[in-house]
Specification:
234 residues, globular, alpha+beta, 49% helix, Glutaredoxin
Length: 234
């Protein structure tokens, strides 16, 4: 048997070793984000619209189930942005079978009518996926509605925001809205977006939850990393 002094020293060493191992086990592993794997360069970079603010843009559609599911995570990301960054949105239209061009038109029409995004954005998701007022799927969840919801139904939906259906329809069918839709389509194509939701940071970097590692926590960390990168690492 070891002398008491050696037993005490050995016990202290083992205890310290376990504590050190636990500390190393609990220490956060630094995340290394690789361009070309976790996020992708947009070449050439696309112009931003908010002056000196760093933009984090979600390319989305109200008709996209993944975008509806991710809405709370997008809200969380927007609240996590530093003061020099801002969240904005570009609606996609590349799935016409599920009314995405109509939802794109709706987004820009609500914007043109001066309706606040915090009142209309989630309301539109709810109208498609919760109350089913503007649902694109059949009531049993199998197959698409035929025909899909028309502009007239969307115009009636916006009555609750104080907009007359005829005013909504007139704005929706205006030259300026058609122009905004074409600009959005061009932006999405130039940015290489082929899936929703996709995040674009300052017109330069593109990422998805899949590229970031599979969930919104990682996507948020990556987006914030890219915002810091655009801020000069601050």
């Amino acid at each position: 048997m070891l002398p008491k002094l050696f037993r005490t020293a050995a016990a202290a060493f083992i205890t310290g070793a376990f504590a050190l191992g636990a500390a190393h086990a609990q220490a956060p592993v630094p995340v290394i984000w690789d361009v070309g794997k976790h996020y992708f360069l947009i070449d050439p970079p696309q112009p931003t619209t908010t002056g000196d603010k760093i933009e984090v843009t979600e390319v989305f559609s109200y008709g996209c189930p993944a975008c509806n599911f991710s809405a709370a995570a997008i809200d969380k990301l927007a609240k996590s942005l530093p003061p020099n960054a801002v969240m904005n949105f570009v609606p996609a239209a590349f799935n016409p079978a599920e009314d995405w061009p109509l939802f794109q038109r709706t987004f820009f029409t609500a914007q043109a009518l001066g309706l606040p995004l915090d009142k209309t954005h989630h309301a539109m998701f709810d109208a498609v996926w919760k109350t089913h007022e503007l649902a694109t799927m059949n009531g049993d969840g199998h197959g698409l509605k035929n025909p899909q919801p028309p502009l007239e139904d969307v115009a009636k939906f916006f009555v609750r925001f104080g907009i007359k259906p005829e005013d909504f329809a007139a704005t929706a069918n205006s030259f300026s809205i058609n122009t905004k839709m074409k600009q959005a389509d061009a932006y999405i194509k130039a940015a290489g977006v082929d899936v929703t939701p996709t995040l674009i940071v300052n017109g330069k970097y593109r990422l998805t939850t899949t590229s970031a590692g599979g969930d919104w926590d990682k996507a948020e960390q990556l987006a914030l990393f890219l915002v810091r990168k655009e801020s000069g690492g601050k």
